[in-house]
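Data deposition worksheet. Section B asks for the primary sequence of the deposited chain exactly as it was used as input, without tags or linkers unless they were present during the calculation. Section C holds the resulting structure in token form. Section D is free text for depositor observations; keep each observation to a single sentence. Incomplete worksheets are returned to the depositor.
Section A, Depositor: J.P.
Section B:
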Amino acid sequence: MKNEDIFKELFDGKERYTHVPLPSSVYRILKPKSKDGYVLHAFINHERVSLGDKYDHDAMILGYDKWDGCCFMRGPGVACDYDSEPFHTWDNLAKDIALSNPQLAVKKRIKK
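Section C:
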């Protein structure tokens, strides 16, 4: 079974997570897999625990994950509030990862 399938299986049917198919523009910024086996994934985390303001909070999460056969490991990634700012896009999150992890970038120079 491929890592992508394992990831989807881990979160499938869980109300807290929604797997997001990445737009092709993200793959022009980041490599889909790292040399050490991490796979790029995106999902929305639906936080239903009250944070004191009586509202539900959703977060966009883009990052690299790996299943090594016995445990799920997180690699480089970034998260942001889904609802608050209009400039939070998958492309902008991908640029943030590429700037801090140039070995994962498709191109060495990423325009901000």
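Section D:
Helices lie at 3-11, 24-27, 90-100.
The chain has a mean pLDDT of 80.
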